[in-house]
Amino acid sequence: MAERMHATDTQNTSVPSEKAVDLGYYSPAKRPPPSFPAGYVLHQVTVQPLSSCPFQVCLLDVGATGELPTCDFHRIRDTTLIIACSSGELAAKTQLTLLEGGVDDVVDADDTDLLLLALKRAELVIARQGGLFRKCRDLAIERDNLQSAIDNLPSPIFFKNRAGIYSGCNKAFEAFIGLPASKVNGASVYDVAPAELAKVYEAADEELMQQGGVQIYEADVCYADGERRTVTFHKAVTRDRVSGEVNGLAGSMLDITERKRLEEQLKWAAERDALTEAYNRRRFFELAAAAKERAQKTSASLSILVLDVDHFKLINDRYGHACGDAALNHLVGLLKRELQEPHIFARAGGEEFYCLLEGCDLNEAFEIAERIRKAVETVPHLHDQQLISMRVSIGAATVRDGEKISQTIAKADEALYSAKQAGRNRVCVA
């Protein structure tokens, strides 16, 4: 409740404001208000005890003793400045007690000049508070708009302070981590990720915040459902607007699991023979070139076998192409069994295969070739309840200094031709 009272003009007043200022006045003892500068309008506040006030400034009558009346200051201090008005000057200790009790200022109301100064101080404080309030309101609106915007983005987005503690995130990050933002904020990476992954993220974060700038890298993550996936992290440091010092980072995550899977599938398809899933000719030459470099550095031997199925056309003609395809897969199975790492093989085309033997000289290559030939001869292929025998002819050659892989293959191919001419089902060396 508030009742309007007219301010009393005095001789010691400054020029009044153009617009009258409304003030509250509360006196538990029902004492009349003090003489007041012009330009102010007092309104009697009658709520007992003082727990609400509709005005930005309220004069609180504390009499001559400075005794603080019962007031619920915590309910009104956010909206109202309280000026304790005494009848006569109070001792410094009493004024301090009033200030510690919750009032914002203390003034001798009998001194009109001091009262006017107190009111002017209150106006300045209110003006500053209004500016701060508007700034806080604008910042809050800006923050809410930013949060709303990033919440609508599909990629997980997060913020961390300089110590690596989460300070914010969007809805997508909440879904990824399986925790609401209230539990993400204040947590460390060790609170939300397995230890072995958290170490990777922590090291990357620290490197970024020490070096500054932007950071992009791929890493595994563990989703809330326990599934491991691959993401690309895009992160950048944030800086203090005044000092320019790094005070944290902002990051986003792009799930590239499906892309990586597709890349692996495409890579596999580009390197493999579609029928047998053995390496194809192109991949063989890539692996052979790398093996040759290793052999040159270590002075190790490197040999190549060229293998061809004898009378393969007869298998196709007699049993059909499906049987011929199955026979080639049967041969690949035998090659896998006989050739252990680091040796590899590839389908060169048709019924012809290349074998790359690392660390093998010509004699060792001959022994391996003989083992393959015997395995093919002694293990027939079963197709439609029929045992189908196969034989192979093999040519072997060793890579010489200054020789290209294609030249070594040509030598082995000549040796293969010799094996065919000599009756097939045999090994010849170049």
Strand-pairing-aware structural class: alpha/beta
Name the CATH superfamily classification of the largest domain.
Reverse transcriptase/Diguanylate cyclase domain
Give the helix tally.
13
Radius of gyration in whole Å, from Cα? 45 Å
Secondary structure: helix percent: 40-55%
Distance between the termini: 114 Å
CATH architecture of the largest domain: 2-Layer Sandwich
Number of beta strands: 18
Shape assignment: rod-shaped
CATH class of the largest domain: Alpha Beta
Number of domains: 3
Stated plainly, the CATH topology of the largest domain is called Alpha-Beta Plaits
Main β-sheet: number of strands, strand sense, barrel status?
6 strands, mixed
Domain PAS: 142-212
Domain PAC: 215-268
Organism: Roseibium aggregatum
Enzyme class: transferase
Q: What would you note in describing this structure?
A:
One of its GO terms (cellular component) is plasma membrane. The chain is α/β, with parallel strands linked by helices and 430 residues long. The chain folds into three domains: 2-129, Rossmann fold (3-Layer(aba) Sandwich); 153-259, PAS domain (Beta-Lactamase, 2-Layer Sandwich), CATH 3.30.450.20; 272-429, 2-Layer Sandwich (Alpha-Beta Plaits). The chain has helices at 73-76, 92-101, 112-151, 171-177, 181-184, 189-192, 195-211, 257-271, 281-298, 312-319, 321-338, 362-378, 405-421, and strands at 2-6, 21-26, 40-45, 57-63, 81-86, 105-108, 157-161, 166-169, 214-222, 228-239, 246-255, 302-309, 344-349, 352-358, 381-383, 386-388, 392-398, 427-429. The strands form four sheets. It has a six-stranded mixed beta sheet, sandwiched between helices. Strands 8-7-11-10-9 form a five-stranded antiparallel beta sheet, with helices on both faces. A five-stranded mixed beta sheet has the order 13-14-12-17-18. A hairpin with a 5-residue loop joins strand 9 and strand 10 (228-239). Helix 10 (312-319) packs across helix 11 and helix 11 (321-338) packs across helix 12. The chain starts with a strand and ends with a strand. Mean pLDDT is 90; it is low at 6-17.
